[in-house]
Design brief:
single chain; mainly alpha; 2 helices; 92% helix
């Protein structure tokens, strides 16, 4: 199953490469060295902000009781 998913992803990148004016390796760099880490950092920041908001709301609810 995983081989099929991998093969599909490779074929997709090989299909997209000439259409984007890039090589397969360049697309890999963009995805795994640039885009993925940025998305991960944004998700971590979102998680931290949400945790802060949850704590603040819990404190406010405790004060109302």
């Amino acid at each position: 199953m995983m081989d099929r998913v991998f093969d599909l992803c490779v074929r997709l990148l090989l299909f997209l490469a000439p259409r984007l004016g890039m090589t397969y390796k360049e697309i890999n760099v963009w995805i795994f060295v640039i885009v993925w880490p940025i998305i991960t950092l944004v998700l971590i920041a979102t998680l931290v902000v949400q945790q802060i908001r949850i704590r603040r709301l819990r404190r406010e609810m405790e004060e109302l009781q």
